[in-house]
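FW: tagging you since you asked about this chain on Friday. Here's the raw sequence from the shared folder, copied in full. Didn't touch anything.
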Amino acid sequence: MTVVLVPYHLDERLPESGIPLPHADATVTMPLPDGDVWQRLSTLYPAVAREVAQIAGRGELPTVVSGDCMVSLAVLAGLQQAGTDASIVWFDAHGDVQTLETTESGYIGGMPLRIMVGYRPELLADHLGLRPLPEDRALLVDARDLDRAEAEYLASADIAQCEVNQIATAALPDGPILLHIDLDVLDATELSGLRFPVTEGPPASSVLTAARQILATGRVRARDIACTWYPDESDDGRKAQVLADLLAAD
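HL: got it, structure written out here
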């Protein structure tokens, strides 16, 4: 496993203490140009994709840790550059299938899974050379906080869904897997300072068990962990422990 830190929430540089990793083998940072968030991410994410491609090309397991879910697009693009046609298992309390046309908040961090399966490639995917993922090669895990537009989309889409405690019996998508875990999939009482906390979720132990079950298939080719919390919140080491446990899972 090779750990890559991308210390950003979207295009906002986070303090080093904001993501308390036990270690990082590489860190991706750079000056970002003036412009909108899409232009800035189109500068940052190709570098992340190249790092992932290099690690995967050496036969190692890239594990990318960042402050949001959008970076998963770069991770998938990097796998594709390395010749791996990966499916996605997406742990998240939210659907992340919003669009610019449906979002009420305007928060683009609620759009990465929708972009991954082909929405508006000119926004970001084209800049990464990212090929769209067929909907039936995505599994959305424990998305329990859906806006109406998201629920309507998912009702007709081929994206499969299950709960964390159903992973052992769920039909995982075919082929190599990118395992994405947004830590807000945990119940809101498990971690302090989450940007979008959602109650009635699983404990960290259940998410860790589910991640191990997926890793045990031998099909995981990359992981990304989204630390979707505010970096200035203190939790007496709880965040560091959750990260360390997930990174140690095999």
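FW: Residues 9 and 23 are 19 Å apart (CA to CA).
HL: agreed, and The first helix runs from residue 37 to 57.
FW: great, closing this out.
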